[in-house]
Amino acid sequence: MTGKVQRLGQAIAIAGVATLLGLLIWKVAFDNQQGAADKLAKGELVHAPAFSLDRLDRDGTLSLAALKGKPLVVNFWASWCGPCKDEAPVLQKTYERYRKQGLVVLGVDVKDFREDARRFMRRYGVTYPVVYDGKGSTIGRWGIQGYPETFFVDRTGKLVGERIAGAVDIERNREAFERGIALALGDQS
Amino acid sequence: MTRALALCALVAALLAAAATAASPADLESQLVCPVCGTTLDQSDAPIAQRMKRYIRQRLAAGASEKQIKAELVDQFGPAVLAEPPKSGFDLLAWLVPLGLLAAGAVGVGLIAWGWSRRRGGEGDDARVALDPELERRVDAELRRYDR
After folding, report:
1. Are A124 and A95 in contact, with CB atoms under 8 Å apart?
2. Which residues contact A177 (CB under 8 A, 6 or more apart)?
């Protein structure tokens, strides 16, 4: 009897250690999913990760699939983020300037209060579509590391150009911003 | 006399209300900053500061602790709660560790019981297997000491 109990205890202990080891191996080997931003930085062909979220600019939801065929500037922002305030007028101007060419600026408000986001939009005169992602469900798949971040999507749904971390159209990234828009519109020149 | 009783009842009611009302500090330790992942009382991130203001405003407006938590979960999702809710699937987060703890305690108990039985058994075996010559010598030595 005592031998059996001892063997049972040893089996339980070994099974416990083996399970923990298995979890560690799985985590290291398989749980290293990269966001779209990392793949884009490596030059890989990446499609814009899909989402369907509630709109803040009007009632209803908006999915990325509904914008298929349109060049996009996707901007992740929050009302509590300082640089987001600096770039809001730039994004609005970009939307107004390229709208006739089909370009859509799409704001994704992340980890924010809905009321704060709406107040921000009124204050900065934002008229482009904005969706609400309070839970941050898009962060991992897009590879968002801070706010704001901006991506460019061409008409086929692929990410093009480079991800802009921080406010757009400042001296540091003006060229990348303009090139991203051109690539999204399909202008390779 | 009636006035005194009414006053006592009022004071008791106020004390009871004060004891059960949530304080901002209580809520700040039970809610997590969605950006930095620490509890609100440990965070100075802009969104954490905004959430602290929201909690104070809602408490001042008479909202209950449960109500405020529900409103913040609606905005930021259940991850905003420092402790998972004790209902639905999240109940597993409470039950699984308790179950593992109980299983561990039973396992340790069984092993300890097995060891104690084996030790007890070894003692009995040792008494039975004592060499008669050795036993005679021990008895002789003991008698010598008794004198």
Report:
1. no
2. A150, A164, A168, A169
pTM, two decimal places: 0.71
User: Does B99 lie at the interface with A, CB-CB under 8 angstroms?
Assistant: no
From A54, which residue of chain B is nearest by alpha-carbon distance?
B75
- pLDDT value at position B12? 57
Look up residue B38 and give its DSSP letter.
Answer: S
Distance CA A76, CA A78 (A): 7
A116 CB neighbours in chain B (<8 A) are 50
Residue in chain B closest to A78 (alpha carbons) equals B47
- Share the mean pLDDT of chain A: 92
**Cα(A7)–Cα(A47) distance, integer angstroms:** 53
ipTM of the prediction greater than 0.95, yes or no: no
Smallest Cβ–Cβ distance between A135 and the set B54, B77, B115 belongs to B77
Residue among B46, B54, B110 whose CB faces A9 most closely: B110
- The answer to whether B86 and B94 have CB atoms below 8 angstroms apart is yes
Alpha-helical (H) ranges within A31-149 are: 36-41, 82-98, 114-123, 139-142
**pLDDT exceeds cutoff 80 at B4:** no
Give CA separation, A161 vs A38, A175, A181, A182, in Å: 13, 11, 8, 9
What average pLDDT does this structure show over B97-105?
Answer: 86
CB A56 within 8 A of CB A127: no
Edge-first strand order for the sheet with A72-77 is: A61-63, A52-55, A130-133, A104-110, A72-77, A149-153, A159-165
Joined together, the tokens standing for residue A64 give 């990325």
Query: With an 8 Å Cβ cutoff, is B110 touching chain A?
Result: yes
CB spacing of B77 vs A136 below 8 angstroms: yes
For B97, phi then psi, to 5°, come to -60, -40
Judging contacts by C-beta atoms under 8 Å, the chain B residues touching residue A134 are 34, 75-77
- What span, in angstroms and rounded, lies between the C-alpha atoms of B9 and B25? 28
